[in-house]
Amino acid sequence: MKIQNYVTLILVCFACFQISCAQDSAQPVYDVSAHYNKQEVDIPMRDGVTLHTTIYSPKDTSKKYPMIMQRTPYSSRPYGEGQFKSKIGPNEYMMKDGYIVVYQDVRGRWMSEGDYDNMRAYIPNKKKGQVDEASDTYDTIDWLVKNVDNNNGNVGTWGISYPGFYATYSLLDSHPALKAVSPQACIGDFFFDDFHHNGAYLLSYWRATAVFGYQTEPTTESWYDFPQLDTQDQYQFFLDNGPLSNLDEYYKEDNEFWTQLKEHPNYDEFWKSRGIIQHLKDIKPAVMTVGGLFDAEDLYGPYETYKNIEAKSDNFNIMVFGPWSHGDWARNKERQAIGNVYFGDNISDYYQKDLETPFFEHFLKNDGKGDVNLSEARIYDSGTKEWKSYDSWPPENATKKTMYLGSSQKLNSLPEATQETKFISDVNKPVPYSEDIKMVFTPRKYMTDDQRFAARRPDVLVFETPVMTEDMTLAGDILAKLQVATTGTAADWVVKVIDVYPADAKDTEETQDHLKMSNYHMMVRSEVLRGRFRNSFEQPEPFVPNQKTPVTIKLQDVHHTIKKGHKLQIQVQSTWFPYIDLNPQTYVDNIFEAKASDFKTQTHSVFGDSAIEFSILN
What is the 8-class DSSP label of residue 198? Predict the structure, then answer.
């Protein structure tokens, strides 16, 4: 096996590894060391384990400051006296305003002691000696407010992606000093975020298993090695590799996470216990959940975090969603684009200056007193390309609109129960997720990618409206209520929502050289359901061959206007490779143990009473 240490890759792959420190423009550098003192301490937890913590304190000691903390498995480095981060805190405005900024290596990672547990389960009623990330956060805050000079007694937490999960975790059994929390691109449940989508394994994440699977001693050096593949063609590598069991060549039993993935193919107690959203009730600190409308990694988590807190708590709870991929809001790019689609200028700067900074300032510096001009739901319309504010999400005046997958590739207002459209799903030629498949951890740009290549394949079904005569704003979740059949006993089902641009659409500087925005098929939202989980994620079951069967897929919320002159299109397919692993299309108890002989080409059917239910803003 060829192995190479890709330290730089992990910095790119996991944007949450101090993504707030990214510098995208050649602006004058703010010298953190000129304005802040730095100290590194090992804070004892209630079980005696110490967690390595770095504290940046303003040199101006004439006043007291709130503390803002990030807990991370991706390192609090640089380590050592005189070694400073280039940027600290959630954004540059807060860094210059003055906060005590704290970074901590979580238990079992980098310079912290203890055992690492990937998505450590929360223990609601801890007994003596029991610890989790909530107790570690509580003990850390308790130590900080008692031992850090010039703090005003108020603490906030924030983080993007995995650090966002730890920010959410801080809400559980929260310390009285914790006043404001911003989970951003936060993982909510590992069976629906990151490594799984509705039970389908995200094969594109496979190389990241190296980061999460091994135990370490305290270290300042990266311990993980990414498998170096013999080709840069990710599609071909996984196709040639065959069944998932062949990947055991790269991760042995000492990789705990790879073993856990294989041993827990269903939504059992192992995964359920690692979910955090079900515990979000009676939350006290103020919360601002942040997400990207085109986040390929963590879209489920932010929405479910906001919605669960909103339903089960009586705190200050708001959400912000912009036209971003994973963590874009912490970068400072003038032109905001995802792949070929340009959304506008200085969108992240607006968020940092006018949303994030006021949120923390209000609750940490002003003790939550007075008014704060922040909407309940601040969300970008990715079709009209403008910010909108709502008093609730989904908006109260949103209504349901149902469209059916009819004959002649049409989206109809009435069902055609006898209509049946068939396609052959060839396990040897699965539908790629993009025309531009690279050896990357997260294929970010594919979230708005041109879908013409897929629409022109015989194994992708297309249904669309006529040219719109007026705008139609989608605002909320999308529910695909499919009626399907298969000649086999297993199948995945993928539904994509497409905005078809008019012929006179203009190119922008982001448009790839080989493309034109004329008739561009922009993917607005997509999701997969592993068909075995159509009735239960806990108890999978096979399809009965050739039997018409309902399959319902919940797509994550959107806020997108299909403009006058555009068309709304739905695509349905059964493979999405190698974003998700290949379904053998023959039922086996555990796909991680499937044999090459289990993989069979099958014929799938979609019936004309299949419906797509949208939330439409009136």
Answer: T
**For 22-78, what is each residue's pLDDT tens digit?**
334 445 689 999 999 999 999 999 999 999 999 999 999 999 999 999 999 999 999
Dist CA 42 CA 379 (whole Å): 40
Closest CA to 404 of 596, 613, 197, 206: 613
CB 95 within 8 A of CB 330: no
pLDDT tens-digit map of 334-374: 999 999 999 999 999 999 999 999 999 999 999 999 999 99
Tokens of 295: 């986040």
State residue 148 phi and psi, 5-degree precision. Answer: -95, 125
Residues in a beta bridge with 43: 51
- pLDDT for position 301: 97
Q: Which of 24-33, 245-254, 496-505 has the highest mean pLDDT?
A: 496-505
Alpha-helical segments (H) within 429-535: 452-455
Q: Using CA atoms of 365, 139, 193, 585 in order, give the dihedral in degrees to the nearest 10.
A: 180
First to last CA, the chain: 58
Question: Closest Cα to residue 446, out of 382, 521, 384, 536?
Answer: 521
SS (H, E, C) 289-352: EEEECCCCCCCHHHHHHHHHHHHHCCCCEEEEEECCCCCHHHCCCCEEEECCEEEEECHHHHHH
**DSSP symbol at 103:** E
Rounded to two decimals, what is the model's pTM?
0.95
Residue 3 has pLDDT above 60, yes or no: no
Where are any strands of DSSP class E within 166-298? Answer: 178-184, 196-197, 200-201, 226-227, 286-292
Contact 455, 437 (CB under 8 A): no
Taking CA atoms, 535 is separated from 53, 69, 588, in Å, by 45, 41, 17
Does the N-terminal peptide bond of residue 78 adopt cis geometry, omega within 30 degrees of 0?
Answer: yes
Question: Do 105 and 216 meet the contact criterion of CB atoms below 8 Å apart?
Answer: no
Give how far Cα 270 sits from Cα of 25, 120, 261, 263, Å: 44, 10, 10, 10
